[in-house]
Amino acid sequence: MVVPLRDDARAFCSGVSEKLCELDEHEWDALVSDENFYNSYRWLRALEHALGETDVLTVRGPAGLVAACTLWNGGQSPGLFYLPSFVADIPGPWQQKFLWLGGRRNTHNGVSCIEGRRRFEAQAELGRCASDYARDRGYAGFVMPYMPYSAALKFADAIGGTVILHSAEASLEVPETGLSGVMARWRKHARVQSKSEIATFRRLGSRVEWAAAVELDDSLAADLITQNRSRYGGVSDHEWMQKILAGQRTAGVSHFVNAAISKRNDDITALTIFYSFGTALHARYFGANYNLDLNDFRYFVLSFYEPLDYAAANGFTKLRLSTSALRAKVKRGAKIEPQALVAKCVDGQPICQHSANQHNLRTLRQYQDEFAGHLCRDWELVESNPNLTS
Q1: How many C-beta atoms lie closer than 10 Å to residue 219's C-beta?
Q2: Computed over its alpha carbons, how large is the radius of gyration of the chain?
Q3: Which of 261, 332, 273, 257 is nearest to 298 (CA)?
């Protein structure tokens, strides 16, 4: 289904594609920034191989694809993808069914869209297409969660949506000197602690090796990742995780894999799987063998210390470290970035803007109190919003 725009919209048209595989990978990825890996073509295709196909919204102009996103239904129980948990203090129809924009189970989203003067128009048309899709299928509205706050502001402006702060993620700028360059910025106590953790890791007989996907055993990786998730309250099982990894191999995502592996003798004791995309290195999965009672700081070595040197040596300028364990990450140099969802209801159902503003103000203060000195500059955009105190 393709819907032509008004005469003054300069030949944009939008539609719904039932298969991502019908779209050109290079045309799609031309719209995806280095920061938006989890909306890249192969990552989304991997999710389809593992979990089934989803509908896709597309906007086209005279030169081809100008905006696009995949769709899903979010989570159905409390957790990272359960909408009522994000907005409990904001009146709205949150218990009804909402359409979710972006990749399934993404904790970093962005609109895949052209840059430049026509970006606003392309996003606006994507919003119109999402509204029509939601209305036609009985959704109360649509949301795109886990967006960088600055990107959420622009998307909301284009579609007439509401910005709601709900989480944050950690990232590290990578200096040319890697770990030593990061540690040079720290106070003495933090440097001493980190050097002690690295020394303990080595003293207990552990070492780090880097591996490409072809060198990984998916069953072993799935077992380690599942152990870690079970230890910290996750619900995914070994079979589910192995299916995800198999989907990545089928879609070619394994081409982007860079895995840091902890070994003692010939035994793998832990691993962190990163994905490289442009100049960014994205940490996604940590797994460990907790049957081995090793207090060797392998999580920090594999997820922070070694990746900084690896990234610097291979031309990466940023480590993206996701949304969990933020306190541990800021102690090791990370900055905290605000994330928001953009929500829009259909058929005139209201979202209370005043309540959303008050929610955003409370969320801002919470992160300022907890992570003072470790917030990135995007938090200044939140602070400068005059509506927060209205």
Answers
A1: 11
A2: 22
A3: 261
- Concatenate the DSSP letters of all residues of 329-368 into one string: HHTTT-EEEEEEEEEEESTT----HHHHHHHHHHHHHHHH
The Cβ-side half-sphere exposure at 17, using a 13 Å CA radius, reads 18
pTM, two decimals, is: 0.93
Q: At the topology level of CATH, where does 175-316 sit?
A: Aminopeptidase (3.40.630)
- Could you identify the residue written with the tokens 């207990």? 204
pLDDT tens by residue, the chain, 390 residues: 444 444 444 578 888 887 899 999 999 999 999 889 999 999 999 999 999 999 999 999 998 999 999 999 999 888 899 999 999 999 999 999 999 999 999 999 999 999 999 999 999 999 999 999 999 999 999 999 999 999 999 999 999 999 999 999 999 999 999 999 999 999 999 999 999 999 999 999 999 999 999 999 999 999 999 999 998 877 668 999 999 999 999 999 999 999 999 999 989 999 999 999 999 999 999 999 999 888 999 999 999 999 999 999 999 999 999 999 999 999 999 999 999 999 999 987 779 999 999 999 999 999 999 999 999 999 999 999 888 865
Domain boundaries 2-170+337-389, corresponding CATH code: 3.40.630.30
Q: What is the dihedral of CA 276, 278, 281, 284, to 10 degrees?
A: -60
Domains 2-170+337-389 and 175-316 share a fold: yes
Sketch the domain layout of the chain as residue ranges.
Answer: 2-170+337-389, 175-316
As a whole number of angstroms, the distance between CA 109 and CA 323 comes to 12
| Closest to 45 measured CA to CA, from 68, 64, 20, 22 | 20
**Partners of residue 144 on adjacent β-strands:** 342
* CA dihedral sign, ordered 355, 144, 167, 34: negative
Q: Which amino acid is residue 250, in one-letter code?
A: T
Element (H, E) at 70: strand 64-72
Check if the beta carbon of residue 307 is closer than 8 Å to that of residue 271.
Answer: no
Where does residue 347 rank: exposed (0-12), middle (13-18), buried (19+ CB within 10 A)?
exposed
